[in-house]
Design brief:
By secondary structure, this protein is of the alpha+beta class. The chain has one domain (8-91): 3-Layer(aba) Sandwich (Glutaredoxin). It is built from 3 helices and 4 strands. A hairpin with a 2-residue loop joins strand 3 (58-62) and strand 4. It is globular, with a radius of gyration of 13 Å. The structure holds FE2/S2 (inorganic) cluster.
Length: 99
């Protein structure tokens, strides 16, 4: 959670390994998914240096929740199953689904 805005901070790794895995193909899809889900106003999307687990595919972090194994093919599924619930949980959205 961003202290100033109260928004959920999503950090997308832009490190060299994640670059190799295709993070620049994931970024526009992620932006589109955030907009489609109507949560773009609840988040701050930032680029990050290496988040640690470089061998596990592209990594992003939403608050304290780290999501690995992202690539241009899995981003939609990971968004629905992991990222969107994390955003809703951390932002206090009443539509939060149980994990
Ligand atoms: S380069 Fe992305 S987790 Fe290390």
């Amino acid at each position: 959670m961003d202290q100033d805005s109260g928004k959920v901070v999503i950090s997308l790794c832009m490190g060299s390994a994640c670059h190799q895995f295709g993070v620049y193909g994931v970024l526009p899809v992620l932006r589109e998914l955030l907009r489609e889900a109507g949560v773009e106003d609840q988040v701050v999307l930032k680029g990050a240096f290496c988040l640690g687990p470089c061998t596990k595919g592209i990594v992003l972090q939403a608050g304290k929740k780290q999501i690995t194994g992202i690539n241009p093919e899995t981003i939609r599924k990971k968004f629905q199953s992991q990222l969107l619930p994390a955003i809703r949980k951390q932002s206090g959205d009443p539509h939060e689904q149980p994990e």
